[in-house]
């Protein structure tokens, strides 16, 4: 009877195990179902992500005959309690901007880490494998910045009002609301009358800062401006940085050279040899030409070679006598301020 009873007892235990196994199998979802969670980047270890047991509809316990859990992949960033099925962050910090699969993604719903978890039945009677995905959400952990702390821009002085210049853009490793939100131009009273900032939305979703000329530029009055360009992101709290914007006003040929006086007089001895210094001007990078002829038929020379200016000629430079200089004979400007060829008038004929 005892043996028979023992046999009946073993059969009953086996039947109970089969019933329990069938119940567990009917509770489990299909193998193609994915476990989906979300967690913010840069969090500390042991941050709760979700409970795999509960999401699979299993009742986790502490007995040796209960279902257990194990990570098959993803253990680099996650860990799971093999008894309770609690999924948490691991000791390695998750930096969204450093994940290779997320560096070129600008939608937080597309930045994720996958994992696989195995569910092991009582007494290892069965094993099932489930896929999981954890979406990594962005936090405002990066400050937008410009490519250089000092930005250089050259603007010609004759540019009309409304002329637009593109400025360097800032970069932010965060995106969305934590990415670049706006640019600001900080300027003194003088610069505020000649420049203003405009920000354009470009097709790829970024913002392009532009500097617009809104006033008259005169290099002879002011040859440079120093402005501050600031960028802010949309985080809470917002992060910002700034760069110095140096605007150099470049010269154009908008002024004619002029002498300080309309007439220059000099005296010299009648027997002065050729090459005796008589008069030396102070203008630079202009061409001088003699437009009047002495009564004795000789020709006075400015003493300049083709590549010389008055400031570069030595005191022994002028070659011939007295040189009255009518003002109208010297208002000639060469292209780009370069030194041109001399001109002489002899016998009523101009020679170049």
What's this entry about, in short?
By secondary structure, the chain is mostly beta strands. The protein has helices at residues 2-27, 52-55, and strands at residues 34-40, 48-51, 68-73, 78-80, 86-89, 112-120, 127-137, 150-156, 164-166, 180-186, 195-201, 207-213, 224-233, 240-250, 344-346, 349-351.
Question: Assembly state here?
Answer: single chain
Number of helices: 2
Structural class: mainly beta
Distance between termini?
Answer: 140 Å
What fraction strand?
A: 25-35%
- Write the element-wise H/E pattern from the N-terminal end onward: HEEHEEEEEEEEEEEEEE
Percent of residues in helices: under 10%
Domain Cadherin: 31-146, 147-259
Keywords: Calcium, Cell adhesion, Glycoprotein, Membrane, Repeat, Signal, Transmembrane, Transmembrane helix
GO biological process, one term: anatomical structure morphogenesis
Protein name: Cadherin domain-containing protein
Could you explain the architecture of this structure?
This is Cadherin domain-containing protein. Residues 294-352 are annotated as: Disordered. Residues 31-146, 147-259 form the Cadherin domain. The chain starts with a helix and ends with a strand. It has 352 residues and is mainly beta. The model is unreliable at 1-9, 14-32 and 305-352 (pLDDT under 50). The strands form five sheets. The chain has a four-stranded mixed beta sheet with strand order 1-7-6-3. Strands 8-14-13-10 form a four-stranded mixed beta sheet, with no helix packed on it. The protein is rod-shaped and about 130 Å long. 9% of the residues lie in helices and 29% in strands. Among the domains are: 35-137, Cadherins (Immunoglobulin-like, Sandwich), CATH 2.60.40.60; 150-250, Sandwich (Immunoglobulin-like). Strand 6 and strand 7 (127-137) form a beta hairpin. The longest helix is centred in the first third of the chain and has 26 residues, at 2-27.
């Amino acid at each position: 009877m005892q043996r028979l009873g023992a046999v009946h007892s073993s059969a009953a235990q086996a039947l109970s195990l089969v019933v329990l196994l069938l119940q567990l199998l009917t509770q489990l979802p299909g193998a193609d179902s994915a476990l989906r969670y979300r967690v913010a980047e840069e969090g500390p270890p042991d941050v709760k992500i979700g409970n795999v047991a509960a999401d699979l509809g299993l009742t986790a316990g502490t007995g040796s005959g209960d279902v257990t859990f194990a990570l098959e992949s993803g253990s680099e960033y996650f860990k799971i309690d093999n008894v309770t099925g609690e999924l948490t962050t691991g000791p390695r910090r998750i930096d969204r901007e450093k994940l290779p699969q997320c560096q070129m993604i600008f939608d937080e719903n597309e930045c994720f880490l996958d994992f696989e978890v195995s569910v092991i039945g009582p007494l290892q009677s069965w094993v099932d494998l489930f896929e999981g995905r954890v979406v990594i959400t962005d936090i405002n952990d990066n400050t937008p910045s410009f490519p250089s702390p000092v930005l250089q821009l050259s603007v010609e002085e004759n540019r009309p009002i409304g002329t637009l210049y593109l400025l360097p853009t800032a970069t932010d490793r965060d995106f969305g609301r934590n990415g670049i939100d706006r640019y600001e131009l900080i300027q003194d009273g003088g610069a505020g009358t000649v420049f203003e900032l405009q920000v354009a939305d470009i097709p790829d979703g970024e913002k392009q800062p532009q500097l617009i000329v809104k006033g008259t530029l005169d290099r002879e009055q002011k040859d440079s401006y120093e402005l501050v360009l600031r960028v802010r992101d949309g985080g809470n709290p917002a992060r910002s940085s700034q760069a110095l914007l140096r605007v150099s006003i470049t010269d154009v040929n908008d002024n004619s050279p002029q002498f300080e006086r309309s007439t220059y007089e000099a005296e010299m001895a009648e027997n002065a040899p050729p090459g005796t210094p008589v008069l030396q001007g102070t203008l630079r990078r202009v061409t001088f030409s003699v437009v009047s002829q002495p009564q004795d038929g000789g020709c006075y020379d400015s003493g300049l070679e083709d590549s010389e200016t008055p400031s570069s000629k030595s005191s022994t430079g002028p070659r011939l006598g007295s040189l009255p200089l009518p003002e109208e004979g010297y208002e000639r400007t060469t292209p780009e301020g370069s030194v041109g060829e001399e001109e002489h008038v002899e016998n009523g004929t101009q020679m170049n």
